[in-house]
Structures are given as structure tokens and as C-alpha cells.
Design a protein that fits this description.
Number of helices: 7
Radius of gyration: 19 Å
Number of strands: 0
Largest sheet: none
Low-confidence stretches: none
């Protein structure tokens, strides 16, 4: 969904800039709720104020809600159909590819610094280790730890006199 929002709002319609999209993605990751809803709400608000935010939120949530509600009415019998079960396996793969595509596009456009690459590699490695080895580590704890590391790096950068606080 993020790659769709990026393509429509940044590349085609030019409602927001690439830097705003990066900021929206970061903010949407740290606020409660689905990222796509948070992104769409921000873009709607930026374009048309409160009414735009409400319309964008409803526009993103309502179609999925209706489809999931309809599926939930028949879920047990629906999952017994072999091709439906296989389709859900394919959907999982497609979602992973879409996420990788969005990450690739964002990484390609960000400024490259050694520290940023290190953070990317450590975060990716940590999440892969958690998934591969089925470690029971809270994602909230990982986010708090990442926030504390970021705060320390920012404080060190400010102490050393860097304007943006980055190392």
C-alpha cells in the first residue's frame, strides 16, 4: 500500500514530495494503526484539511472492511476450498514482494551515510533472526531499543557540534 501511495501521491499527482513521503512513512510506522491508513490520512489532510483526512481514511479503510466482513461470514467453509488456501499462500509471497519493492524505492532515494547503512543492516538482521529462529522478542521492545539508540546517536552528534545531530 505504501508503494501505491508513493506512486500516486508523489510520482503521478505530485501532492507531496519524496522527502514528505519518507517522513510520513517513518511517522506512520511509529503511530498506532496501519501504515497505509496513517499515510492516506496525512496526504488527505495536507491536500484538503480535516475533510480530506476523513475522506482519505474512509477511502482506504472501507473497501478492505467490506471485503473482510464478507469473507468472515463464510470463512470456515471458504478456507476448506483448496485453491483458496493456495491463493492465500500466494498472497503472502506477493505482500512480501510489495514490501521489498517499497523498501527498495525508499532506500534508493535516501541519502547514504555509513551510519544509516549500519542501522539498516542491524535492523534487517535482527528482524530476520527473530523470524528465522522464532525468538520471542517483543516488537515494542525492539522499537524502544531502536529509539534509545537513535536518541544516543543524536545526542552524541549534538555534543560534537553537528548541525543535524547525526553521526
Amino acid at each position: 500500500m505504501i508503494s501505491l501511495i508513493q506512486e500516486e501521491c508523489v510520482e503521478k499527482k505530485h501532492w507531496i514530495t519524496q522527502d514528505e513521503m519518507l517522513s510520513i512513512t517513518v511517522i506512520a510506522e511509529t503511530t498506532p494503526g496501519p501504515i497505509a491508513v496513517n499515510c492516506a490520512t496525512y496526504v488527505g489532510y495536507k491536500k484538503y484539511g480535516l475533510i480530506g483526512a476523513i475522506a482519505a481514511t474512509i477511502g482506504v479503510v472501507l473497501p478492505s472492511f467490506i471485503i473482510i466482513y464478507a469473507i468472515s461470514l463464510f470463512l470456515d467453509s471458504f478456507l476448506e476450498i483448496k485453491w483458496v488456501a493456495n491463493a492465500f499462500k500466494g498472497i503472502k509471497i506477493a505482500v512480501a514482494i510489495i514490501i521489498i519493492d517499497a523498501a527498495y524505492k525508499l532506500i534508493k532515494k535516501m541519502s547514504v551515510r555509513a551510519f544509516d547503512i549500519a542501522v539498516l543492516v542491524v535492523a534487517f538482521g535482527t528482524m530476520m533472526a527473530v523470524n528465522i529462529f522464532s525468538l520471542k522478542i517483543s516488537s515494542v521492545a525492539l522499537m524502544v531499543l531502536a529509539g534509545l539508540c537513535s536518541l544516543c546517536v543524536f545526542a552524541i552528534g549534538k555534543r560534537d557540534g553537528r548541525k543535524d545531530g547525526n553521526i
